[in-house]
Design a protein that fits this description.
By secondary structure, this protein is of the alpha+beta class. It is built from 9 helices and 12 strands. It starts with a helix and ends with a strand.
Length: 421
């Protein structure tokens, strides 16, 4: 739910509760005011009768005021209060022929050394339910009117007020640290939104600056590493051509292999970093032919390892990808299937219009689709594995809008490249 819609919703709930509570208070207040007004008049009449008892008889006063009953008490009661008010609801009145609210106001005055009980009784006809229902309908129509006003004007005002906020959200979604573009925020007179715009602009500028520094550091590091690595490899190659003992040859050969791994790792990291700025090309590549060429390159190595290779390739399958990057993807996947296989195992490669599937037998591992593509994540302790090949594969296919997934079942490790996107 959008922020403006949520505000409108809360306003509607508040108005509804306010009207409901206000109507209840109005209903109770009307009844209470009506009762108090009648009691006040009856108290005034009783007081008038008490004053008249000093000069007039009780019978004459009762004739003048039919609602008054005057009784002379047989003795004086010291424990009686001056005034008693009795109220009873839903009492049937014969004269009114309806249920009414019965009120009695009783006084116990001393007049001319006589103790009197003066009772004033009256009925107040309750307001009919139909009347209150009509009032309730009026309140309901008022609520509908206010609701319409809130939805129409409230939503419009909220959208106008939060337009800078929505603009900032769009800028945040479109922000790409790799492009290095400055954030363009809307001017606003709201303090909180101004602070939010300022904070995000500062964070975006800082992110761009740090990304440039990191990119520059990576490029410099790669360049600086390549020269000493190449020098070391050249010197080791010269030493390998000299007369050395078998132990020295093995040591130098091991050093040469490690330098090769370091050089490959360095190039892979640089390529992985450069993919962040890679511009996607619209060129179509024949995946069927590229896959056959890559398999041909690894076929001898797979057979020498005692593994069985089963291939099913559909002709004329095309995808949008850079040919060199496609070669890296296919080489890493097939090399991974060969390297992490078991003795006398098998590899199955299938290509259709929708997907490329590569299966290989292998030892069980605890890797999942979420972890296997992480950098430097290895499923085995194979020292020849850099642990970056699959991360590179995933990054390349994602740059071009494709998706690759991994699953294992019954010691089968399966990679599926979805190309139907």
């Amino acid at each position: 739910m959008k922020l403006s819609s949520r505000i409108t919703y809360y306003l509607i709930v508040i108005v509804f509760l306010s009207l409901a509570i206000g109507f209840s208070i109005f209903y109770i207040s009307i009844e209470r005011v009506t009762n108090r007004s009648a009691i006040y008049k009856m108290e005034q009449l009783n007081q008038y009768v008490i004053n008249q008892l000093k000069t007039q008889s009780a019978d004459s006063l009762q004739k003048k005021h039919p609602s008054i009953r005057i009784k002379v008490l047989s003795k004086k009661y010291d424990n009686l209060v001056d005034e008693v008010v009795e109220e009873r609801e839903a009492v049937w009145n014969e004269q009114l022929q309806s249920y009414g609210y019965n009120i009695k106001v009783i006084h116990y005055p001393f007049v001319n050394n006589e103790h009197y009980q003066i009772t004033n009784e009256d009925y107040i006809v309750k307001i009919e339910r139909e009347y209150w229902f009509s009032v309730l309908m009026v309140v309901a129509w008022i609520f509908v009117f206010i609701l319409t006003i809130i939805i129409f004007f409230g939503e419009m005002i909220a959208r106008n007020l939060y337009m800078p906020f929505y603009s900032l959200l769009i800028q945040m979604k479109m922000f790409d640290v790799r492009k290095g573009e400055q954030i363009q925020v809307m001017n606003t007179n709201t303090t909180e939104l101004d602070e939010l715009n300022k904070l995000f602009t500062q964070m975006a500028d800082k992110s761009i600056q740090q990304y440039k520094l990191l990119k520059e550091f990576t490029e410099n590091l790669s360049h600086e590493l390549q020269t000493p690595l190449a020098n070391l490899k050249g010197k080791i190659e010269l030493l390998l051509d000299t007369n050395l003992s078998e132990q020295q040859m093995q040591a130098l050969s091991g050093m040469y292999d490690e330098l090769n791994r370091m050089s490959t790792l360095n190039r892979s990291l640089v390529l992985l970093m450069s993919l962040e700025d890679h511009e996607v090309s619209p060129e179509k590549v024949n995946l069927s032919d590229a896959l056959r060429e890559t398999i041909l390159h690894y076929e001898d190595i797979i057979e020498m390892g005692g593994k069985t290779l089963n291939v099913s390739i559909q002709n004329h399958v095309y995808i949008n990808i850079n040919p060199m990057l496609l070669q890296i993807v296919l080489s890493n996947l097939i090399n991974n299937a060969s390297r992490h296989n078991i003795e006398n195992g098998s590899i199955e490669i299938a290509l259709t219009d929708n997907f490329l599937e590569i299966k290989n037998m292998g030892k069980p591992n605890n890797l999942t689709n979420e972890t296997i593509f992480n950098r430097f994540k290895k499923g085995t302790s194979d020292s020849g594995s850099l642990g970056i090949g699959l991360a590179l594969v995933k990054k390349i296919v994602e740059v071009y809008g494709y998706r690759i997934t991994y699953k294992n079942h019954d010691n089968l490790h399966i990679f599926i490249l979805d190309i139907n996107t």
